[in-house]
Design a protein that fits this description.
2 domains; two-stranded antiparallel sheet; Oxidized Rhodanese, domain 1
Length: 138
């Protein structure tokens, strides 16, 4: 059976979720999901993707998403549909990236985002100190 994977615009997915017509499944990895996620999205990472781990709710559409709406969510949607003998599956067009560009809300873990920024600042300071020391010695 050939599977049709349909791209769905972010605003439509949001509307479906608000109306109780759909659930969202995030196929990004744990670290990505922890940093920022779509509210109430279920995490089923693509690296360990098993269609049996996708939560299903009777009568609801399952919409898969990744970061940019490319291969990961498309492949996961198709694999899930095949395992459930469904002819069609859905994925979020443009992924969470497009979701955010459209101004739709996400939940961000500021402490994880800041820890990455802090690490970058520490590295920059170390590099600057090394450069200054090197320039004084030469």
């Amino acid at each position: 059976m050939e599977i049709k994977v349909t791209e769905v615009e972010a605003a439509v997915v949001k509307q479906w979720v608000e109306e109780g017509k759909a659930i969202v499944v995030d196929v990004r990895e744990v670290k990505e999901h922890r940093k920022e996620r779509i509210e109430d999205a279920y995490l089923v990472p693509s690296s360990t993707f098993d269609p049996e781990n996708v939560p299903e709710q009777e009568g609801k559409i399952v919409v898969f998403h990744c970061y940019s709406g490319g291969g990961r969510s498309n492949r996961a949607a198709a694999k899930w549909a095949r395992s459930k003998n469904k002819a069609e599956a859905f994925h979020l067009k443009g992924g969470i990236k497009e979701w955010k560009l459209e101004g739709l809300p996400t939940i961000r873990n500021e402490s994880l985002l800041m820890s990455g920024l802090k690490n970058a600042v520490v590295i920059a300071v170390i590099l600057l100190a090394a450069y200054l020391l090197w320039s004084m010695l030469t």
